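Subject: Sanity check before I submit

Could someone independently write out the structure tokens for this chain? I want to compare against mine line by line before I put it in a report. The sequence has 172 residues.
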Amino acid sequence: MTGARIHTPRVALIAALDQQDGIGRNGGLLCHLPGDLKHFKEITTGHCIVMGRKTYESLPKGALPHRTNIVLTSSNAANFPGCIIARSLNEALSHCKKDPLFIIGGGEVYRASLHLADTLYITRIHHTFEGVDTFFPAFDPAEWELVEEEHREKDANHRYGFSFLTYARKDQ
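---
Independent answer below. Compare away.
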């Protein structure tokens, strides 16, 4: 862990990125990392999660349990069981009455919300994948402080090593 800063996020983006900031391909995750999925669950359980339609459609069992699921979509025919439907990011945020709320993807939603975020929970996968078609938006490292990091080596359950990195937006 770096720093001893105590930080409570209001709006956080959470994503797993490869070495080139890729986050997905063919509508799915880049790889299966049980440790990252456990980390994601621990951080987001009990909170609001905001996602785009494609991210919702990539979830194997639909809405994630023990969270308020909000799906951003412009479709009038949208059907997302167990979720709140929002037509704009502002509408989605208005449904979250307690801190923190988590933006969980995809690429378009991350780009639209990065300026609102005060925290980034990044899992950096120590690999570059082929065929990546969705990327996390570039962010200016001068605006962010790395407040926590934890490294995991590849093992029997993880084909790739990875690091959990938590960034807090620096006071402007």
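---
OP: Matches mine. For the report I'm noting this point. The first helix runs from residue 34 to 44.
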